[in-house]
Design goal:
single chain, 355 residues, mainly alpha, Methane Monooxygenase Hydroxylase, Chain G, domain 1, 2 domains, 0% strand, elongated
Amino acid sequence: MKISWTFKNATGRVIESIPPVLQIIIAALASYSFAFFALGHKNPLLAVTVTITTLGFTRDARPRRVIETALGIVTGLFASELLVQWFGQGIWQLAVTLLLCLLGARFVTQSASFALTVGIQAMFIQLLPLPVGGIWVRPLDGITAAVVSLLVTILIPRNPKGLARKDASALFTVFLESLDALRSALRDVDVKKADETLNKVRRTQPLVDNWRMSLDSAVAISRISPFLKKQRYDLNAQLRLMRGMDLATRNLRVIVRRVDFLIRDGEKRPYLADLIEQIFEATTNLSKAIENEEFLFEARAGYLEVIHQLDPKKFGIADQLREASVLLLLRPMLVDLLCATGMSEDDARDELPDV
């Protein structure tokens, strides 16, 4: 089973990597061809390496990131060429070049991988023979790669919307599984399941971060790419959905922690299990809204039905602080989930019963 699952994950990564791989290949060939045929550079190595480094496989494919990465690398190339002219090539010169370039890169950005990338480009400058045509040949190759990378990002965008949907699906899967397990824990007074659910929801933040990053990239690219203009409405709607789910997931962690503590007294609380089940059903519809926004209305109706019940007096627990606290913690989560359906925060709060 483990081998099969690993193979499945590996196959999924390959399929997911096809768009960025094709984009990198096209950009690398374009950079090389322009530097070789148009500029007459005999061995435009950096035109290819800078292109590959700039585009990469990162989720953050925003044009701004591409520009920042490319400019940083090109600046490092220029600085390295100047250091070669001043100090020449050799062992101690390599050490000085790497020292200055790495520290300079760390000064301008907090990205450790970016600093290492600048250091690798500086190493190329130091170790490779001086090219025919002068010291500015290689920085010019870097500029070529930067321009081509940006053009390819705009004109041949990856599938940012598809990646964002996949990240959304991953978060909804864990969110729904946690709600289902929480319902069972409340109904069966299963402390072990509550513990397992708590561990699961504590690991949801990377899923939220992945969704936010891929969605931010999709929105940024859609603003400048002529091929993604039609997707702007869907992306903005998904951005609203992501923000609501981010806050709802944070609240779910608190709720699960409180339930984990509450059920240790051994008492069954079927009414809480029923409320969680209703939230589960509404969230199932909300997850379908990623593909079809008509499900937003069904999800909203389900959440409204739940939120109107969130009054401790309704269940006769107003004087039971430990138990009432769980019910009260559901209130902000329902507000966040209603906001995810498109309702304003003020309107969602107005639906809360007075306590």
